[in-house]
Amino acid sequence: MLQRIQTVYLLIIVGLMVATLFLPLAILQAGDQFYSFDATGVSTVAAEPELVYPMWGLFALTAVISILALVTIFLFKKRILQIRLCVFNAILMLGFYGLFAFFTWVMEGKFTDIALNVKIALSFPIIALILDYLAIRNIGADEALVRSLDRLR
Q: Among the residues of 1-153, which ranges form H helices?
């Protein structure tokens, strides 16, 4: 049943996480040099961008989050499995921020006198986490409704 509200929530999660893949998460300034921090890594901000420090783990984690949310949509007949996948996806979203913090810490050790300016795309996983919670609540409500209807038979 693709017309349920949790499907809309999960589709928005997919859109936000795909946008997180391609938008810059932060701008790093080390001295007079500027670097773009996105899901693929840290690259220079110039006419010819060069990948200075690759972070494929962050890219893979973001891709897994968006694919898992998309797969969860099509498991509408298995609501308990949907809830479990949404909870696992929420844990992965929290892991995204842990991995981002770790890579930021690594960048502070790699560059001297670093300044970090975050961009709007860094808030997308938090919004996706809130939408994931709302999807879990609505899937649970659907499961409670189906179980209550089974008692009437």
A: 5-22, 56-73, 79-110, 124-152
The model's pTM: 0.88
- CA dist 4 and 85 (Å) reads 17
Please choose, from the candidates 115, 96, 109, 105, the residue with its C-alpha nearest in 3D space to the C-alpha of residue 35: 115
Asked if residues 72 and 58 have their Cβ atoms less than 8 Å apart, the reply is no
Which whole-number Å values give the CA distances from 101 to 18, 53, 122, in the listed order? 20, 15, 11
Contact 62, 17 (CB under 8 A): yes
The pLDDT profile of the chain, 153 residues, written as one tens digit per residue, is: 567 899 999 999 999 999 999 999 999 888 888 888 889 888 888 778 788 888 889 999 999 999 999 999 999 889 999 999 999 999 999 999 999 999 888 888 877 778 888 999 999 999 999 999 999 999 999 888 888 887 655
For residue 104, give every residue at least 6 positions away whose Cβ sits within 8 Å of its Cβ, in sequence order, or none: 26, 37, 116
Task: Identify the helix (H) or strand (E) that includes residue 29.
Answer: strand 26-30
